[in-house]
């Protein structure tokens, strides 16, 4: 699969690659797809326990994963899939706040799902698709990323 270029940002990303055998992002042509990004500190791996902090950090981790793979970041995201334990007003408001901060000039399409469980110690999971404008000026799916934060495990 030489046409696939895998990326793992330093710290949590490279540790996950070594211990869990997965990458943070993959470039396929002019697309970037990201794995789930949670509310962990990218250097230490420590997970925030408060929902707003987790979502803030997860958005920053998506930005980090995209840029590490050669993308421009959230400005290229056109689709977001988010998974929440629990799905409540606090999580929704935090998501909208970060959408406005990271994507002030466009509104992505968004699928938001409440689930009973996510990965260890996570409550929020966000996936998104981004277009990496190497030679294009329009948004096309490029990245998929996810966040998990589970309050019962924090």
From TrEMBL:
Q: Which InterPro entries match?
A: RutC-like_sf, YjgF/YER057c/UK114
This entry carries the following GO cellular component terms, namely: cytosol; mitochondrion
GO molecular function terms listed in the Swiss-Prot or TrEMBL record: deaminase activity
- Which Pfam families did the record assign? Ribonuc_L-PSP
**Coiled-coil intervals:** none
The record's section on Gene3D superfamilies has: RutC-like
Its lineage reads: Eukaryota, Fungi, Dikarya, Ascomycota, Pezizomycotina
SUPFAM superfamilies listed in its UniProt record: YjgF-like (SSF55298)
Entry protein name = Uncharacterized protein
């Amino acid at each position: 699969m030489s046409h696939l270029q895998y990326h793992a940002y330093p710290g949590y990303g490279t540790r996950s690659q070594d211990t869990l055998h997965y990458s943070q992002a993959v470039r396929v042509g002019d697309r970037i797809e990201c794995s789930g990004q949670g509310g962990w500190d990218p250097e230490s791996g420590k997970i925030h326990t408060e929902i707003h902090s987790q979502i803030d950090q997860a958005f920053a981790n998506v930005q980090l994963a995209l840029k590490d793979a050669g993308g421009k970041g959230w400005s290229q995201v056109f689709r977001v899939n988010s998974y929440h334990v629990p799905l409540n007003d606090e999580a929704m408001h935090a998501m909208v706040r970060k959408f406005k901060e990271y994507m002030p000039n466009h509104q992505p399409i968004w699928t938001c799902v409440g689930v009973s469980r996510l990965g260890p110690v996570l409550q929020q999971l966000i996936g998104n698709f981004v277009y990496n404008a190497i030679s294009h000026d329009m948004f096309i799916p490029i990245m998929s990323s996810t966040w998990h934060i589970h309050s019962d495990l924090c």
